[in-house]
Design goal:
Elements lengths: L1 E4 L2 E6 L2 E6 H23 L7 H6 L3 H39 L6 H4 L1 H14 L5 H23 L6 H25 L2 H11 L8 H15 L2 H12 L2 H6 L4 H23 L5 H13 L8 H20 L8 H23 L1
Helix pairs in contact: 1-3, 1-14, 3-9, 3-10, 3-12, 3-13, 3-14, 5-6, 5-7, 5-8, 5-12, 6-7, 6-12, 9-12, 13-14, 14-15
Subcellular location: Cell membrane
Protein name: Iron-enterobactin ABC transporter permease
InterPro entries: ABC_BtuC-like, ABC_transptr_permease_BtuC
Length: 346
């Protein structure tokens, strides 16, 4: 049941209800349509995309080839882009709310660098393979997040201190991985460099299913996130005044945000700027002034990464770019604009 009053609407499902802004509801619906459109385009563009007729009307050799191309390779990659983009958007919303800073995202704070360092450490000890790389990425990301929290903690967490500590930790980890690239064997250095570019190339159902299951479990935290993030966004002291245990909840949020980032980096490598841009874009298009929410950043992140992956595949004919290269280009322009905008305010 939906009951609209002025600029808000009340969504009811049994005993549960939530008040949402009508503009945010409409924007989220349009974003969801955009994600579905990007998914459809990813299935029909490129070689084999014009052979749907053979798939629908005949059990021919061409039909079986098209089915393998579309459903075995393209669909898994398209779903991975949408799901991983949503995870990055939520991670960005969490850290930007904790830090009260639009620059407070996993890539700026050093979680991506931590995941990269974890993979480098795994390769340095001679381990290889998907499971080892994934374990190294998850461990590195979580350890980096906890290190930043501990170093930034001083009778509580302040956003500015956490951003500064995160930048310092990121610089240290980047220096360590650069040293590894110089000293390591050529094959190990190349493997780390390929993973570090951030790519969805070669995504299959076997590769997607394990992180997708973990991501779906993490998405169940959206219910408490929908309560905690708006409270923290209005200020720690005000949130504490409402009875919220601010610092313990912040620690839980750091772990959840790191887990969302780790799920993506374990499979696709560090994909930059989606987590940075998605919450801010969501806030601007939904007209939100307090509370980044969860649906907006997740849908914007899913759309950004889906579109970036399409550009990575088809922007340059006969050239397949890593999606991380596309997000860096798009995000770099956004970061310059954001820094210029924040500079004018100060």
């Amino acid at each position: 049941m939906v009951r609209a009053e002025a600029a808000t609407a009340v969504l009811r499902l049994g005993k549960f209800s939530v008040v949402v802004r009508r503009r945010a509801l409409i924007c989220c619906a349009l974003l969801a349509v955009g994600v579905l459109a990007a998914l459809a385009f990813s299935l029909v563009l490129g070689p084999g995309g014009t052979q749907w007729g053979s798939l629908l009307y005949g059990a021919s050799e061409r039909a079986s080839t098209t089915e393998a191309l579309v459903f075995e390779w393209r669909l898994s990659r398209a779903l991975a882009a949408a799901l991983f983009g949503a995870c990055l958007g939520l991670s960005g919303a969490i850290f930007q709310t904790i830090t009260h800073n639009p620059l407070g995202s996993p890539d700026v704070l050093g979680l991506n660098a931590g995941a990269y360092a974890g993979v480098v450490g795994v390769l340095a000890i001679g381990a290889s393979g998907y499971a080892a790389v994934a374990a190294g990425a998850v461990t590195g990301s979580v350890v980096a997040a906890l290190s930043i929290y501990v170093l930034a903690f001083n009778r509580g967490i302040t956003g500015f201190r956490m951003v500064i500590v995160g930048i310092a930790v990121s610089a240290l980890l980047t220096a360590l991985t650069s040293w590894f690239s110089v000293k390591a064997e050529l094959d190990d250095a190349m493997q780390a460099a390929i993973w570090g570019a951030g790519t969805l190339y070669g995504m299959t159902w076997a590769t997607l299913v394990p992180p997708a299951l973990v991501a779906l479990v993490l998405l169940t935290t959206c219910v408490p996130l929908g309560r905690w993030l708006p409270q923290l966004d209005i200020g720690d002291s005000i949130a504490a005044g409402t009875g919220m245990r601010v610092e313990p909840i912040k620690l839980v949020l750091v772990l959840i945000g790191a887990a969302f980032t780790a799920v993506v980096t374990a499979v696709a490598g560090p994909i930059s700027f989606v987590a940075l841009a998605a919450p801010q874009i969501a806030r601007r298009i939904t007209g939100g002034h307090r509370g980044t929410g969860v649906a907006g950043p997740a849908l914007v992140g899913a759309l950004l990464l889906s579109v970036a992956d399409l550009l990575a595949q088809y922007l340059i004919p006969d050239v397949k770019l890593p999606v991380g290269a596309v997000t860096v280009v798009l995000g770099g322009g956004y970061l310059v604009w954001l820094l210029a905008r924040e500079g004018k305010r100060s």
